[in-house]
């Protein structure tokens, strides 16, 4: 399959300009995508766009990732209902570096002629004066052309109920012109003839192709992928706690893995094509296997494994799998001991956490006292209740079932300060000894 056929089969293709397929068939084509450095990490919504560049390179073409150091100072109005706060230059530079490190995980920067490149549009805008930009660029695009873009019309037109529109600052209005110049600059300096992005970028991208035509008489092309949405139509890439980030400091490998594992069958069948590089035959085999036994979650597991390893590492993936087993009663003490502190805290993020100072812990006369009085009644309200359940075999500490309610408190603290207490099958507590 060529690039267009591959993207179409994977459900990633939304639209492309006439002549794009012929351009790609004519030989190695340089194409680029811009990434907005509004945070120091990209999220999984961005990852779907990165995969467009990955497929471009796999098809023998040259990918360029543009980190928008200049455009990040302004803010893209596409898909926004209000103007966002603008970031200072130091914050933007830190964000750019974080994004650069992440992009290097997915693209090959040492593949010869079609090796990937990263560029920063601040490099060519920093010395561009306002008057110079108006004279050299602004005169080529009419206001009527810019006003016709959906990203502009949605912000200046009243809604269906006649409510007044939020409005659009001149800064945001000019964004499409600045992004359009990016395409022109890369066309002239890198020979870029294709810009790609998510479908909400169509207006900005075609402004670039128009600018190339008017300023240089050249021909350039646009290709946009489908916006990835959840089964209910809402934007994909967020959990109840916010974005699912690619940076482990923002979203732990465990939570990242769990996100994919908990997708619906419908979402997993669609997204395994978007987020993995598994071939068609294997995806079709996994899909059929999943339909035969949906409860085994074959698709979700294959997707979670592939993406977690590529975004984080195989070690992080294995640790996430082990950690996942704990809450289902399959892990043992050795599994718990093997977890790094951040992974342990991530697994038990949603359970009650009880702090006990070291002196109190050392002075505990029995485990039943520890799990009742010394933990403020949060595990058991009384020592008698704790004794009864321990005798019935319903309590464990660090996956070791308690036998004697009067036994001494002499447990190996995980990471030298944690005890994982399980009461019954589903009730967990994390005791933190400080």
UniProtKB/TrEMBL annotation:
Catalyzed reaction equations: tRNA(Tyr) + L-tyrosine + ATP = L-tyrosyl-tRNA(Tyr) + AMP + diphosphate + H(+)
Molecular function (Gene Ontology), one example: RNA binding
Residues the entry annotates as binding ATP: 238
Key words of the record: Aminoacyl-tRNA synthetase, ATP-binding, Cytoplasm, Ligase, Nucleotide-binding, Protein biosynthesis, RNA-binding
Any one annotated GO CC term: cytosol
Location (main, coarse): cytoplasm
Domain (Tyrosine--tRNA ligase SYY-like C-terminal) ranges: 347-431
Key word Coiled coil present: no
Name of the protein: Tyrosine--tRNA ligase
Subunit structure: Homodimer.
Gene Ontology BP terms: tyrosyl-tRNA aminoacylation
Sequence similarity: Belongs to the class-I aminoacyl-tRNA synthetase family. TyrS type 1 subfamily.
Motif placement: 'HIGH' region: 37-46
Motif interval(s): 'KMSKS' region: 235-239
NCBIfam families in alphabetical order: tyrS
Role description: Catalyzes the attachment of tyrosine to tRNA(Tyr) in a two-step reaction: tyrosine is first activated by ATP to form Tyr-AMP and then transferred to the acceptor end of tRNA(Tyr).
Keyword Cytoplasm: yes
Binding residue positions for L-tyrosine: 32, 175, 179
One matching Pfam family: SYY_C-terminal
Subcellular location: Cytoplasm
Transmembrane stretches, start-end: none
EC number(s) recorded for this UniProt protein: 6.1.1.1
């Amino acid at each position: 399959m060529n690039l267009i056929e591959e993207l179409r089969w994977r459900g990633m293709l939304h639209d492309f300009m006439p002549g794009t397929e012929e351009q790609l068939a004519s030989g190695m084509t340089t194409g680029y995508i811009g990434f907005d450095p509004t945070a120091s990490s990209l999220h999984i919504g961005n990852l779907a766009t990165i995969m467009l560049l990955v497929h471009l390179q796999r098809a023998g073409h040259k990918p360029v990732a543009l980190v928008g150091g200049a455009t990040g100072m302004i803010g893209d109005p596409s898909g926004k209902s209000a103007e966002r706060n603008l970031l200072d230059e130091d914050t933007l530079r830190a964000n750019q570096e974080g994004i650069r490190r992440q992009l290097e995980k997915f693209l090959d920067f040492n593949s010869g002629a079609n090796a990937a490149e990263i560029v920063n549009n601040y490099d060519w805008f920093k010395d561009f004066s306002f008057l110079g930009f108006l004279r050299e660029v602004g005169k080529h695009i009419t206001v009527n052309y810019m006003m016709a873009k959906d990203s502009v019309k949605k912000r200046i037109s009243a809604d269906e109920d006649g409510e007044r529109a939020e409005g659009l600052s001149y800064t945001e209005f000019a964004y499409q012109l600045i992004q359009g110049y990016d395409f022109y600059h890369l066309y002239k300096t890198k020979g870029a003839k294709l810009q790609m992005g998510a479908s909400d970028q169509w207006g900005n991208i075609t402004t670039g192709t128009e600018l190339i035509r008017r300023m240089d008489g050249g021909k350039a092309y646009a290709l946009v992928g489908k916006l990835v949405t959840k089964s209910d139509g809402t934007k994909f890439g967020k959990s109840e706690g916010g974005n699912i980030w690619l940076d482990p400091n923002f979203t732990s490998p465990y939570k990242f893995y769990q996100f994919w594992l908990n997708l619906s069958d419908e979402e997993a069948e669609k997204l395994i094509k978007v987020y993995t590089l598994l071939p068609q035959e294997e995806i079709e085999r996994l899909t059929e296997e999943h339909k035969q036994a949906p409860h085994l979650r074959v698709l979700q597991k294959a997707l979670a494994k592939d993406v977690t390893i590529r975004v984080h590492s195989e070690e992080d993936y294995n640790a996430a799998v082990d950690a996942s087993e704990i809450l289902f009663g399959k892990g043992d003490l050795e599994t718990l001991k093997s977890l790094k502190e951040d992974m342990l805290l991530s697994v038990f993020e949603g359970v009650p956490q009880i702090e006990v100072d070291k002196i109190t812990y050392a002075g505990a006369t029995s485990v039943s006292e520890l799990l009742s009085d010394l933990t403020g009644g949060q595990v058991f309200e009384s020592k008698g209740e704790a004794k009864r359940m321990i005798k019935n075999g319903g309590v464990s500490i660090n996956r070791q079932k308690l036998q004697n309610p009067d036994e001494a408190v002499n447990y190996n603290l995980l990471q030298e300060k944690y005890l994982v207490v399980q009461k019954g099958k589903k009730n967990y507590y994390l005791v933190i000894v400080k």
